[in-house]
Amino acid sequence: MSETTYPNDGFRQLIEGYRHFFEGNPPRKGFCALRAEQIANTQRPHSMVVSCFDSRVCPEAIFATNDGHICVHRNMLNQIDPSDASMMASLRFAAEHLQVQNIIVLGHSDCNAVAKLKDLASLPAEISAWLGGCGARYRGDSYADAVKNNVLDQLARLSGLEFIARAMRENGLNLEGMYFHIDTGRLERYHSGQGRWEFIQTEE
Ligand SMILES: [Zn+2]
Fold first, then answer.
1. Residue ranges for the chain with pLDDT beneath 50
2. How far is the CA of 57 from the centre of ligand 1 (A)?
3. In sequence order, what are the beta bridge partners of 199?
4. Which of 25, 132, 154, 185 is the most exposed place for a label (fewest CB within 10 A)?
5. How far is the CA of 34 from the centre of ligand 1 (A)?
6. What letter does residue 110 receive in the DSSP assignment?
7. Which fold has domain 9-199?
């Protein structure tokens, strides 16, 4: 297991928050009126998280963030869909106006949406239209591989967006892929330089 590297301070905060969550600590004292004065007139989130909408995957809890720290966009299968105006508007606002340091695509174990990719024809029209229409595919020898490969596919889409590529080039925007294990609370991070997934260390 290699040392966790921090490409920026926002990422360090995410990992420290994750360790807080993993150790079973209660949520931090955010999301309450105590901090209202500090954030009433501005927001400076360090990261945006694109998560599946699965009720068991809650980015603010997993990263133990306070209000004002991360923007979250959720949809079935954590898709980066260029035809989804809501998603594109959120991404562009986060990258250009808020100038977040990181965008995380967060997949997870037991993702029913990925499993359903094998059998779109059996689904109600609204669900098959979304899962099939955004071009996702079941790719890999195992269920976990398919989820992880979908995360990588979405990262490739993300980096292919013109305004994201520009933010990476000009502002150092960092893209990350992660995989959350619902059953254990563990989190894997994709190391693009090494081309492999690795568990995030839960201790310094
Ligand atoms: Zn899911």
1. 1-2
2. 8
3. 188
4. 25
5. 33
6. T
7. Beta-carbonic Anhydrase; Chain A (3.40.1050)
Distance 79 CA to ligand 1 centre (A): 10
Give per-residue pLDDT as tens, 162-188: 999 999 999 999 999 999 999 999 999
* Contacts of 128 by beta carbon, 8 Å cutoff, 6+ apart: 120, 121
Match 């921090």 to its residue by tokens. Answer: 6
> What is the reported pLDDT for 138?
93
CA pair distance 97, 32, nearest whole angstrom: 25
Query: What secondary structure does DSSP assign to 131-166, as a single string?
Result: HHHTT----SSSHHHHHHHHHHHHHHHHHHSHHHHH
Residue pointed to by tokens 């595919």 = 137
What's the 41 CA to ligand 1 centre distance in angstroms? 34
Looking at residue 1, its pLDDT comes to: 41
> Which two structure tokens, joined as six digits, stand for 170?
């000009």
Angle, helix 143-160 to helix 162-171, in steps of 10 degrees:
80
Residues 19 and 55 sit within 8 Å (Cβ to Cβ): no
Q: What is the pLDDT of residue 11?
A: 97
Element of type H or E holding 105: strand 102-108
- Map out the domains of the chain as residue ranges: 9-199
Handedness of CA 114, 120, 126, 129 (dihedral sign): positive
- 101 CA → ligand 1 middle, Å: 25
Rounded to whole angstroms, how far apart are CA atoms 84 and 41? 29
